[in-house]
Amino acid sequence: MRFLQSLCLLPLATAFGSSWYHNAFSWQKPLLGSTVNGVHFPSLLDADLEDLAAGLEKGLFTSVDLVNAYTRRILEVNSTLKAVTQLNPDALTIASELDIARTNGTIRGPLHGIPILLKDNIATADKMDNTAGSYALVGAKVPEDSTVAAKLRKAGAIILGKTNLSEWANFRSKNYTSGWSTTGGQTEGAYYPQQDPSGSSSGSGVASALGLALASLGTETHGSILAPSDANNLVGIKPSVGLTSRYLVVPISEHQDTVGPMARTVKDAAYVLSAIVGSDPNDNYTSAIPFSSDKTPDYVGACDYFALRGARIGVPRNLIEIDGDDDPSTSPYAPLLPAFETALSILRSAGATIIDDLFLPGFDTIKKENFEFTVVDTDFPRNLATYFAQLIVNPHNLTSLKDLERFTHSFPEEDWPEHDTLTWDRSFNVSATTTPAQAWGNYTALQHYAGELGLFGALKNHSLDAMVLPTMFAMGLPAELGSPVISVPMGKYPEDAKKLKNGYGNQWLVAPGVPFGLAFMGERFSEEKLIGLAYAFEQRTKVRGQVRPYLVPRTEVGDVVVGVGMDVGKGDL
Ligand SMILES: *[C@@H]1O[C@H](CO)[C@@H](O)[C@H](O)[C@H]1NC(C)=O
Ligand SMILES: *[C@@H]1O[C@H](CO)[C@@H](O)[C@H](O)[C@H]1NC(C)=O
Ligand SMILES: *[C@@H]1O[C@H](CO)[C@@H](O)[C@H](O)[C@H]1NC(C)=O
Ligand SMILES: *[C@@H]1O[C@H](CO)[C@@H](O)[C@H](O)[C@H]1NC(C)=O
Ligand SMILES: *[C@@H]1O[C@H](CO)[C@@H](O)[C@H](O)[C@H]1NC(C)=O
Ligand SMILES: *[C@@H]1O[C@H](CO)[C@@H](O)[C@H](O)[C@H]1NC(C)=O
Ligand SMILES: *[C@@H]1O[C@H](CO)[C@@H](O)[C@H](O)[C@H]1NC(C)=O
Ligand SMILES: *[C@@H]1O[C@H](CO)[C@@H](O)[C@H](O)[C@H]1NC(C)=O
Ligand SMILES: CC(=O)N[C@H]1CO[C@H](CO)[C@@H](O)[C@@H]1O
C-alpha cells in the first residue's frame, strides 16, 4: 500500500533543456544464458515459463537444478538488495518429489516443478515464518496454508521462499521507505544503485525482475503490486478483489486487499493467475466471482497478438498529475509523458481506437474527501484481529492492533520511535469515531465518485474495453473500486534524467535506467480481456528486454546441472 507516496514528492525539478528527453533505448547485448546438456538455454533473467517447462520436459535439467540455481542467484545479490528474507528449507525435497512424479508421467499442470516466491505476508503452513516484516509475527504459525499458497502447491509450483516488503504492507509508519521492514532490512531496486524498489511488494518485485524465481506473488491494497511492477520492469496483475482468496494473508482492508502475480511476461503472469483464482469458503468476497469454478476464463489463451484489433481504449487525462509547481515538463517524472504518447500510437497502430481526453468528474471529490482512509482505517483493526485469532501459535499473544502497538513500542528491534506507528494512530482514531453506518456511507460514496462518476461511468458512457494510463496514475480508483489493473513495461528514464529521491531521502525514485509501465484498467472481473490487450502491447514493444538492471546474478541453470554435459567451471560452486 502506498497512498501515492511518490505523487506527494513531485515539485522539486529545475528545467531541463529542450533536448532532455530521448526515447531511444540503449541497445545492450543480451545476456547469454548457458549451455545445458549440450543445448543452449536462455538466461534465468529472461527465461519464461514455457522455456523452463521445455527444459524440464526434455530432461535438460530438473526442478532440483532450478531450486539450486535460483537459490544461488538469491544469495549472490542478497547482501545488496535484500529481496528474499527466507528460503524454504523443504524446497529441494519438494522439487525432488516433483521430479520423480514427472519421470513417472504425473504432471500437475504448467507450473509443475517451477519455483515461485511469496511476499512475506502470505502464510504457508511449513517451516517458514509469515511476518509481514515484523518481529511481532516471527515464530507465529497458521493452521494451514493460505488458500493461494495451497493452490500453487496443488498446481505443482515449488514455494521457494519469502520476499521482503514494506513492514505491514506499508501500513505502519509515516517515516519509512518502500521495501523496509525490521525483519528484512531495506530492499533495493536493481536498475540503479540505491533505487527505491517501490512497494509494498518490494522484494517480490526485485526478485521477479532479476530471475530469482520464475515469478512471485504480491498483495495490493492501494498500489502495492502495481507500483513495484512499474519500478522493476515487470508485468503485475492486480486482480479484482475477490478473484483470489485472502484467507491467511496478513490483511489491511477486506474491501481493497487482493493477491496477484508479478512476473516478467504477460503470459507467465496469466499462468500464475490461473493457478490461484477461485472461490473459497474462507473468503466470502470470492463469492462475487461471476463464473463457476469449472468455467474459469482461459487467461493464458487470452494472450492473443491481435487482441487490440477493434478495441476501444479510453485515456482519462485528468488522472495524470505531473504538476508540483508550474511546468510539468520540469518534473523528474516528465519522461513518462512522451513515452505514454508513443504507447498510445502503438495501441492505435495495433488496431485500437483511442478515446482521448476523458474527464472523470468524481476524481476531484475523491482527492478532497477521506472516504478511502475511512474505509481502510476502519477495516484494519477488525481484519487484523481476525488474522491474529486464526494463528495456532501466537508468540506474543496478540489479539488486537493495540496489542501490536504495545509490542512494537517495547521491542527494540522494531526501531520505534525512529520508525513511528502513526498510521495505526490514525486507524485507531478513525475507527473509534466512525460508526458502522458512517463507514458504509464512506464506502458507498467512494464507489459513487470512483465508479459511476469515475472509471465505471466512463467505461460505460464510451463503450470502452479498457482505459490506459502510465502505471503510477492508475492505482487509486481501481484500489477503491476493487477492479483489476495490469501493468506492462513501457520504458525507462533516460540517461540525463533528473534524479529524484524518496521522501525519506535514502533511495532514488527517479534515476537513469529506472523502468516504468503502462497500466490497463477495466471492469471488475475483466482480467481475461485486459490480459489480451496487455499481451498485444507487450508483444509489439518488448520493452522489458531493452531495460537492463545494473546488478545481475551470474549463476545459470547450466552451472548447477549435475551429470552429462555439465558446464564445468562456469559457476563458483
Ligand atoms: C538476505 O539478507 C538479509 C539481510 O542481511 C538476511 O536477513 C536474510 O536472511 C538474507 N536472505 C537469505 C535468503 O539468506
Ligand atoms: C508412479 O506411478 C504409479 C502408477 O501410476 C504410482 O502408483 C506411483 O505411486 C507413482 N510413484 C511416484 C513416486 O509418483
Ligand atoms: C463474510 O465472512 C465474514 C467472516 O468470515 C462474516 O463476518 C460476514 O458476515 C460474511 N459476509 C457475508 C456476506 O456472508
Ligand atoms: C502468552 O500466553 C501464554 C498462555 O497464557 C503464556 O504462557 C505466555 O507467557 C504468554 N506470552 C507472552 C509473550 O506474553
Ligand atoms: C525518521 O527516521 C529517521 C531515521 O530513523 C530519524 O532520524 C528521524 O528522526 C525520524 N523522523 C521522525 C519525524 O520521526
Ligand atoms: C489521534 O487522536 C488524538 C486525540 O485526538 C490526536 O492527538 C492525534 O494526533 C491523532 N493521531 C493521528 C495520527 O491522527
Ligand atoms: C464518513 O465517515 C465520517 C466519520 O469518520 C463521517 O463523519 C462522514 O459523515 C462519513 N461520510 C459519509 C459520506 O458517510
Ligand atoms: C456519463 O454520462 C452521464 C450522462 O451524460 C454523465 O452525467 C456522467 O458524468 C458521465 N460519467 C463519466 C464518468 O464521464
Ligand atoms: C538482517 C535481518 O533482518 N535479517 C532477517 C531476515 O529475515 C529473516 C526471517 O524473517 C530473519 O530471521 C532475519 O533476522
UniProtKB/TrEMBL annotation:
Signal peptide: which range, if any? Answer: 1-15
Pfam families membership: Amidase
The segment(s) forming the Amidase domain are: 65-418
Keyword terms? Signal
Know the name of this protein? Amidase signature domain-containing protein
**Which source organism does the UniProt entry give?**
Neurospora tetraspora
